[in-house]
Sequence to fold (322 residues):
Amino acid sequence: MRIRHLLGALLAVAYVLPFAALAFDLQGHRGARGLLPENTLPAFERALRIGVTTLEMDAAITADGVVVVSHDPVLNPDLVRGPDGQWVTQPLVIRQLTHAQLQAYDVGRIRPGSNYARTFAQQQPLDGTRMPTLASVFELVKKLGADKVQFDIETKMDLRNPDNTLPPQPFVEALLKVIREAGVEDRVMVQSFDWRTLQVLRTAAPKMRTVYLTTQTQRGSNLDSPVATAGFTLAEHGSVPGMVKAAGGHVWSPNFPALTAEGVKLGQSLGLKVIPWTVNEEADIERMLALGVDGIISDYPDRVRAVMQRRGMPLPPPLDVK
Fold:
């Protein structure tokens, strides 16, 4: 009888605090980009209903200081239609548009015939969808009662065209204002390829988790720029995880093809979480899990869940599961 009561108590704890025991961080990339238009309220809701630990998204700032959710600092011609219903031909800079002006643009489908459309052929269009504010994402999550879901927010800087975005200090200040007004500071981690913003954040909000993004491909790496890495170098610190640790990071988030078992082991030995991006194919998901990563960022959180379930891993609850 005592054992039965103990088991019942343990189940009750897991039921009330389903995220507390979840060591693995399943992140819906731009909501669920493979299924619905990226970085939109419907995509974030879809990810919640699939069941994720974290909503991953990107932040940009308008001319009148409104923090909006957009992967690009400019309006992407493959994703955005103007007030006339035509696809934009010029990559208009979000920083030069007011929020009201931005709301005239439709982000509800991918331009047919584009490489983007071929890559995400399963994405369901939702014509009439607008670019959300970050505040509206927080409001949606609160309205839906997903009060344990985390947020992974990227500061979208443009090192090649720095005038397209605010400098690191005012960018972070604007972002923190929205986060604090929503009362979700303890549920947010901030990520960036431009580590300067994470250094600003480290001073302005020292308790907030920081995620250091890296990309290493044959075409180049953000690690090649001492500006992007805020002065932290491989020569000084010996490894990428060593750089992240020295910078004060909590999470190292590399592009998954460059990640090795040795890299995972080293990162974790330094006390870092290792969460690769953007892992979409089943074989790659399996490989990342076999490496022992601490989480996965994916355009298809449903695929990651399916692999996790096969492996007997604990799953974050779908939104409708109380």
Notes: Confidence is low (pLDDT under 50) at residues 1-18. Residues 2-16 form the longest helix (15 residues). The chain has one domain: 25-73+126-311. The domain at 25-73+126-311 is CATH 3.20.20.190 (TIM Barrel).
